[in-house]
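Technical note accompanying the year-one report. For the benefit of new consortium partners, we illustrate the data format agreed upon in the data management plan: each record pairs a sequence with a structure-token string. No post-processing was applied to the example shown here.
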Amino acid sequence: MTTAPEQDLPYDVFSKACPSRVTLEHVTGRWGALTLGALYQGSFRFNELRRRVDGVSEKMLSQTLHALERDGLVLREAQPTNPPRVDYELTPLGREVAERLLALIHFVEGRMDDVLEARSRYDEARASGPSPATGRAS
């Protein structure tokens, strides 16, 4: 397998102490990726975004948005209204990251038939094959 030539970058995500690793975790974690993907569609209020990212708890969405805002990927804009209104949108850097994530998301969605078929073959082989613990058929 060939990879793109390595560039001389000041950061190395494979190094345990590299700060890029934390940002990568924020971006590629389940809620981070889904939040960035949703915000690519435009500005959302908190509860709108929570409905769009089905299954995320209020606490997890709040933590995710905070981390993405701190990384410079999400802009939080509080409106001085009564009741207060807070909107979230992607920064230019956030849009760039989201575009790359959405390419992966769309690829995975487009290949789900292959994934589900592979899962089925895997599960069938494990159900009729030897038990990993004993080496004997179950």
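Partners are asked to follow this layout when depositing records. Residues 19-128 form a domain with the Arc Repressor Mutant, subunit A fold (CATH 1.10.10.10).
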